[in-house]
Amino acid sequence: MKAITVLGATGSIGLSTLDVVARHPERFRLHALSAHSRIDALLELALKYRPRCVAVSDQAAAERLRRQFVHHGAAIDVHSGAGALEAIASAPEVDLVMAAIVGAAGLPSAIAAARAGKCILLANKEALVMAGDVFLRACREGGASVLPIDSEHNAVFQCLPAAGNRGGIRRILLTASGGPFRQASLEAIESATPAQAVAHPRWNMGRKISVDSATMLNTGLELIEAHYLFGVTSSSIEVLVHPQSIVHSLVEYVDGSVLAQLGNPDMRTPIAHALGYPDRIESGVTPLDLAAAGRLEFEPPDPVRFPCLRLARQALESAGGAPCVLNAANEISVEAFLGGRIRFGDIARINEAVLDELGGERAAQEVNAVIDLDGRARRAARQVMERQAS
Ligand code: NAD
Ligand code: MG
Known about the structure:
17 helices, 11 strands, binds nicotinamide-adenine-dinucleotide, binds magnesium ion, alpha/beta, 15% strand, 390 residues, four-stranded mixed β-sheet
């Protein structure tokens, strides 16, 4: 019986995780769930799945939850405020931590899980992008293990030989759907609306990662994520656009073999893989029917439609603090786009302007320095937007 904490339980990955966990009551016990703003959703999940405790950011929300739990006769502790997420990520009774908070907000709890030696199911790619060295060092020092949840990285992990025998790999091929604007005109992309950008053709995800898929910066962040997870350089990672999202990624070996992992586009597959690892467990995902799928297509990514992909590769190759800077700039530009304050095309321009300004910074070697660099890049992004607006 393994005890699990789900950070970001109300999100798309969090809900899929709870769905898989609930299919295996003999294997998993829910220790804690966290949420940020969707308190009613958290209340409903807690009453349904009965974790030991929950954590929320806001004190008033915590009070409201406590009253509701008393009202429903549910013995569920409520943590809130600074340190609450770290506490549920590092509690001694916890074995597995699903890190599924979106964005830089997920870093401190991921680091806490690493230092406490947990088995981390890592969906929050931003932790690796902004603080790859720091996070991996915390994992080594704490004795934590990391299992990738991002579908591409989970696929690569499944296609790699057992640890300790990593010779003979020529390339990692990360697939990407190309998002909703794969074939759109440059004019249509420039002025795309938030509703168009989040309408992903294959995956049902949170709003931020959906916009990243539309700019293809998601794949850019995934290049950086792959570099840290698998210890490979930029030149051995390639991106392949695959609109059907059935081949989740591939590993090519020096003998010409190419291994791929396939499945329907449903995050419960990588989640179940990591939850059960090394066993295989049921996920609830519909079996893949390749004959019904018919055609599987592949093409190179279009550098003109998707400038963010170039920015990410540039950031990775600069080998310093640039990935952290790019991630922070992008969180600000995507938030402004979703809030209707900038155009879709501005996202790449703002990200590039901030990279030009701060991309030469050295990689931070401590969490506080990462958070400092992240903050400076956010301020720079806001200033670029103010200059554009005036
Ligand atoms: P989402 O927006 O659906 O959910 C985000 C979760 O984070 C929510 O539970 C929310 O309460 C929590 N959260 C948001 N801001 C917070 C803050 N400031 N403090 C504490 N908690 C906060 O996002 P998602 O699509 O589930 O993505 C989660 C992570 O998984 C992201 O890093 C994303 O890149 C990664 N990921 C998602 C998918 C997917 O299919 N959705 C696939 C691969 C990777
Ligand atoms: Mg992915």
